[in-house]
Design a protein that fits this description.
The complex is a heterodimer of chains A (485) and B (236). Chain A is of the alpha+beta class and 485 residues long. Helix content of chain A is 28%, strand content 29%. In chain A, strand 12 and strand 13 form a beta hairpin. A nine-stranded mixed beta sheet of chain B has the order 4-2-5-6-1-7-8-9-10, with helices on both faces. Classes of the chains: A alpha+beta (485), B alpha/beta (236). The interface between A and B is large, with 59 and 65 residues. Strand 10 of chain A pairs antiparallel with strand 4 of chain B, so a sheet runs across the interface.
């Protein structure tokens, strides 16, 4: 775990804590804590008794796994065959690559420096032996697996205790004996692991290399300058990318075209789709939109001499069979419409209404880009309180006269026009969200609103509120907050 | 199609209750004129005239040019019986982009209705632009509604032109505002009579604007002079 500490606790021993059963136990300790006698498995209460200034943090296995996967990607610069040895190991097959780094030892040093962690390493002829040497070897340099303790078999504690009671302390002691007895006493697992470590059984390396990026590139003998030629070239590249994606059953969500001009200038065009796709025509329409929407037109100069296409973001997309009866084009055409409008106007201008869990009317919804979020799920309409169809953002100040101090307004002036209130309903009292402010729960911080639904002489229905009760403010202001149908 | 928890009411009928009133038929272009403060009523009329209850509704608007800083409110839509997740709001920076985005959406066949909200003169909306919208609506078969707020009518290729006004509602108990009531005036109709005015009241059960129900007469059946089983029959 990589940690950042405040300066005052930088010298303190540090440990990670995980819940095991009903107890909190240390799951990892730093060298300073280990020097004070702490070890993984100690209960937190014991550890605190021994070492009162122990700094702890909860153990986060997911973050560890992410860091390990990230480390695996970085190890790709040493060898293409990298396998992670969960939870805290990494196996590198360095067959035939060590000479590139001036020998195995130099390669190991470079890999350790790249990792930047406190770690142990070992070199062996196969993966199981390397793992056992790195985890249980006495000195970093030696590579004699027969001298390893029996703990390298990683058997359950009872089995290890049984081996030690029988006087078998090293793997070499076991290897000299017939395997049948070992298998009968400690299970097949013990002999399989022993054979793997000794190199008699297979210990394959399960590497998961990163998939090759989807790319297509075209170079031209003569530079091309006309926009329609550029679009034709992009279409040919899209068809090639579609073939690559079809073989891997993926579809692209983001397509980037890089136009390389003769004079070295590069122009980058980028489109995104809401659903994964690999059909060239809809992507071509998006690129045509993008070129149309450019503030300055596509300046070819003396022409483009190369065009590259990359699909950096992909998602699984199985082959689809067209429906025999009827077409299911509704959802697709809607997604295509959202893509086209998002490409032309920008994703922030094609919006869905998202519900937000708040009782403040202006905070109960927000707009989010439709291209990036799935359609929202609104709760069933079960509320009884009247809500307007259109909401003012922000509320508009009005001057209102009420017949009684805490009653609905009798007439109000808005935008220079006097409205006589003929009917009114309310109040619906909405308190401020005191938990959002410091000291919001104290009186005087935040004003309560009294909402009224009113109708004027011409039948216009408004949602108005008085900002503040008479106890809270001496002269509460009135605002109009919405229009009803 | 995912299962949706929103419990919507029965689809609002696009056909009018009274046979006399033509609706906002699909596959045509309609213009709704309204005063800025009657905007909510005009929008509610347009939204509830949309035929299908599941397909998305697209509202193309240009808030920068709007006369009032208003935005659609999800809970208010739900109160009208419209699932707010159906609404897609497209924000255009200017009039030209507004009409182009409207045209793009009008060509999309999977929608329930397209509403283009415009304020003021809308200079770019001429016979050519409206004819384009008409052709797109005919091909895709969805009702295209141009909401024109604070605008004077001008020549266009639209099939019908309406004026929506708010009317005072029938008060409820304690003089509370009643159900929304509107006057719908048919200003112009292609190939049909125009000039009629209908009064409609919101019907919360149907989630649609309906004719105001006839008031109860209040008449009571008169007592008969001679009642059967009367122990003391009156003798004339």
């Amino acid at each position: 775990m990589i940690r950042t500490l405040a300066s005052h606790e930088a010298d303190a021993p540090f440990a990670l804590v995980a819940r095991a059963g009903n107890a909190l136990r240390l799951s990892a300790v730093c060298p300073r804590a280990a020097a004070r006698g702490l070890a993984p498995g100690t209960s937190l209460a014991d550890a605190r008794a021994r070492c009162p200034d122990l700094a702890t943090a909860p153990h986060n296995p997911e973050a560890d796994a992410r860091a390990l996967a990230d480390l695996g990607r970085r190890m790709g610069r040493f060898t293409p065959l990298v396998a992670s040895d969960a939870p805290d190991g990494m196996l590198l097959d360095i067959t035939g690559v060590a000479h590139l780094f001036r020998g195995e030892a130099a390669l190991a040093r470079a890999a350790m420096a790249e990792a930047g962690l406190t770690a142990r390493h070992a070199l062996a002829d196969h993966a199981a032996a390397a793992r056992a040497l790195a985890r249980h070897g006495a000195n970093p340099g030696d590579n004699d697996v027969r001298a390893l303790p029996v703990a390298a078999l990683e058997l359950p504690d009872e089995a290890l205790a049984g081996l030690r009671r029988a006087g078998l302390h090293r793997l070499g002691d076991l290897a000299r004996r017939p395997m049948a007895g070992l298998a009968a006493r400690f299970g097949e697992e013990a002999t399989t692991r022993l054979r793997a470590i000794l190199g008699e059984g297979a210990s394959p390396l399960h590497s998961s290399p990163a998939p090759a990026p989807i790319r297509a590139h075209a170079r031209f003998a003569e530079p091309i300058a006309r926009t329609c030629d550029v679009l034709d070239a992009i279409e040919a590249l899209l068809a090639e990318a579609a073939r690559q994606m079809e073989a891997r059953r993926i579809g692209g969500r983001r397509f980037i075209v890089i136009l390389e001009r003769c004079d070295g200038a590069r122009r980058r065009l980028e489109v995104e789709t809401g659903l994964p796709t690999r059909d060239p025509p809809p992507v071509m329409r998006l690129f045509a939109e993008r070129i149309d929407a450019l503030a300055d037109p596509l300046d070819p100069g003396f022409g483009f001499d190369a065009i590259g296409l990359a699909v950096p973001r992909t998602e699984p997309l199985a082959a689809r069979q067209a429906e025999l009866a009827g077409d299911d084009a509704g959802e697709d055409s809607m997604a295509a419409l959202i893509d086209r409008l998002s490409t032309r106007l920008g994703p922030g201008n094609v919006l869905h209404l998202m519900p937000v869990d708040s009782h403040m009317p202006e905070r109960a919804q927000r707009m989010s880009p439709a291209a990036r979020t799935p359609p929202p799920l609104w709760p069933a309409a079960a509320q009884a309180m009247p809500r307007p169809l259109l909401l003012f953002d922000p509320p508009q100040a009005i001057t209102a006269i009420a017949s009684v101090p805490d009653g609905p307004p009798q007439r109000f002036r808005w935008r220079g026009l006097l409205h006589e209130v003929t009917r009114a309903e309310g109040p619906e009292r909405i308190a401020p969200e005191w938990w959002r402010k410091v000291d919001g729960h104290l009186p005087g911080h935040g004003l309560t609103r009294d909402y009224y639904r009113i109708e004027d002489g011409e039948g216009r229905r408004f949602w108005v509120f008085r900002h503040g009760l008479f106890g809270e403010s001496s002269d509460p202001a009135w605002y109009i907050h919405g229009l009803f149908a | 199609m995912s299962v949706h928890p929103f419990v919507g009411p029965a689809p609002a009928a696009s056909a009018p209750v009274k046979p006399g009133m033509p609706g906002l038929c699909p596959g045509q272009l309609h213009e709704l004129h309204a005063h800025a403060q009657d905007w909510a009523s005009a929008l509610a009329f347009a939204l509830t005239a949309a035929p299908d209850n599941r397909a998305p509704l697209v509202l193309v608007r240009s808030p920068r040019r709007a006369g009032l800083p208003l935005q659609p409110y999800g809970e208010g839509l739900a109160a009208l019986g419209i699932d707010p997740s159906r609404l897609l709001i497209v924000v255009a920076p200017d009039e030209m982009a507004l009409l182009r985005a409207g045209l793009e959406a009008a060509r999309c066949p999977g929608l329930s209705a397209l509403i283009v909200e415009s304020w003021g003169k809308l200079a770019a909306y001429d016979l050519t632009a409206s004819r384009r919208l008409v052709l797109a609506a005919e091909r895709s078969g969805l009702p295209v509604i141009v909401l024109r707020l604070d605008a004077s009518p001008r020549a266009s290729a639209a099939h019908s032109r309406w004026l929506i006004r708010n009317l005072p509602s029938l008060p409820q108990a304690a003089n509370a505002p009643g159900q929304p009531t509107i006057a719908i005036e048919l200003l112009r109709q292609r190939g049909g009579p125009a000039g009629q005015i209908w009064q409609r009241e919101w019907n919360d059960a149907d989630k649609a604007f309906r004719d105001r129900p006839a008031p109860l007469s209040g008449a009571v059946v008169p007592f008969p002079a001679l009642r059967t089983g009367d122990p003391h029959p009156r003798v004339a």
